[in-house]
Amino acid sequence: MRHAWFSEVAKWVRDAWCGVSEATVTAGFRKAGLLASAPGQPELDESSGSSDSEEEAPATLPPELAKLFESASEDEDFEGYQE
Prior knowledge:
Layout: H1 6-18, H2 22-31, H3 63-66
Region (Disordered): 36-83
């Protein structure tokens, strides 16, 4: 059995990441305390029993966090890290 190439693994990760909804990312940021709840939205309670599969209304990310998700090179092949 051959090992997977780094480019294959990167594609798998990219494809999986594309399948994650904005609501899931926002809920994760909110649960981790990186994002405050939107006005009129209740705070998450650790004992509420909410699961990651539940869809929540997306909140707006602060501009400094939203900028981290922008990429000008999404269509380029990953050629590895330069040393």
